[in-house]
Design a protein that fits this description.
Layout lengths: L1 H18 L5 H20 L13 H4 L72 H4 L1 E3 L2 E3 L17 E3 L7 E2 L12 E3 L7 E2 L12 E3 L17 E3 L23 E3 L18 E3 L28 E3 L27
Parallel strand pairs: 2-3, 3-5, 4-6, 5-7, 7-8, 8-9, 9-10, 10-11
Antiparallel strand pairs: 1-2
Helix pairs in contact: 1-2
């Protein structure tokens, strides 16, 4: 009843306000006072004493049964049961894979084929047996190429500007005549500690600038023809025999200063020796004898070899005291056994 009276009062007030005609501005104040008086009269007649809401009488004062569910929200979202996965996102419906996609391997062109060992211009234009530029496998600094300990089995194609070449501690077994063709500026070749047993006859002879040839710790049994520009030959720790050295092999090498053939299988000293020779190392060979003119000109006792100061014959089965006239032109006696 009280609720009905309250609602009725409010409706009456709204009806009167709508029924009133539009009044001039001077009568507007008078109408507002009438509405205010009616509102106070309605609310004064309401008994609000029983509307003391608390947790104990909330259900008695307000009837919750009249609040029916107006909207059904069940269809607005997907139902997800506990213990199940969320529905897949459309963009992820395709299964992911980490497998690499196979592509067709391009064929190696003839320019990079391992068979093609021709030299190319520049420091990285040459292709090695591994199919890579020489300066990618080796280290190229200016005009020097360092291929030490790189498991090479052949001399790699070298840039045409190469001046110094090092390929120590590899598995090279043969030197071919074409390995150094066209390398007009090449001054030094160092192939220490390989397995070289064969050298083509023209491998070094045609190199116009070669000064140092370093071949120790290989398996050489002979020496090829050498260029006349050579200053140093180091072929220690090989298996070179006297029969493997051509007669007068060093006669025309006017620039040769260092001849090191120690730890081989030589039976005699290779003669004649070039006049400018400074160091002759023949220790640990099989030399048993020498001639009086091996070092000096027996017909000219005024002949003096001032340059040849270092001769080593120790480790050979020869008694140097048996050849006293063989050393008169030398600035010092050879190193070896004198008893």
């Amino acid at each position: 009843m009280q609720t009905a009276a309250l609602v009725g009062g409010i409706i009456t007030a709204l009806t009167l306000s709508l029924a009133l005609p539009t009044l001039p501005q001077e009568d507007e104040k008078e109408v507002k006072e009438v509405q205010k008086t009616m509102d106070i009269t309605v609310y004064d007649n309401l008994d609000l004493g029983n509307y003391d809401l608390n947790l104990d009488n909330y259900g008695e004062v307000i009837d919750l049964s009249n609040y029916e569910e107006i909207y059904d929200y069940g269809d607005l979202a997907s139902k997800i049961e506990v213990g199940t996965l969320a529905p897949p996102i459309k963009s992820m419906t395709e299964p992911l894979t980490t497998a690499a996609v196979l592509t067709e391997t391009p064929e190696r062109s003839s320019a990079t084929s391992p068979v093609n060992r021709s030299k190319g211009p520049g420091l990285s234009g040459s292709i090695t047996d591994q199919g890579l530029p020489t300066c990618l496998i080796c280290v190229c600094i200016s005009t020097s190429v360092y291929c030490d300990d790189t498991d090479l089995e052949h001399i790699p194609p070298l840039p045409l500007e190469t001046t110094y070449f090092y390929a120590r501690f590899n598995h090279i077994s043969k030197i071919e005549a074409s390995d150094f063709t066209g390398l007009a500026k090449l001054k030094r070749i160092d192939l220490t500690s390989n397995f070289i047993s064969s050298v083509d006859e023209d491998s070094f002879r045609l190199l116009p600038s070669l000064q140092e040839l370093v071949l120790p710790e290989n398996k050489l049994t002979s020496l090829p023809e050498l260029p006349k520009t050579l200053v140093q030959l180091d072929a220690r720790f090989n298996m070179i025999q006297s029969s493997g050295i051509q007669p007068e092999a060093f006669k025309d090498l006017k620039r040769l200063q260092f001849l090191h053939l120690s730890d081989n299988k030589l039976e005699y000293i290779p003669v004649p020796l070039p006049e400018g020779l400074r160091s002759l190392h023949l220790q640990n060979n099989h030399i048993q004898t020498l001639h009086e003119d091996t070092f000096c000109d027996g017909q000219d006792h005024s002949h003096i070899r001032r340059a040849l100061e270092d001769i080593r014959l120790d480790g050979n089965p020869i008694n140097l005291s048996l050849y006293p006239n063989a050393y008169f032109c030398l600035p010092r006696l050879p190193t070896g056994r004198f008893y």
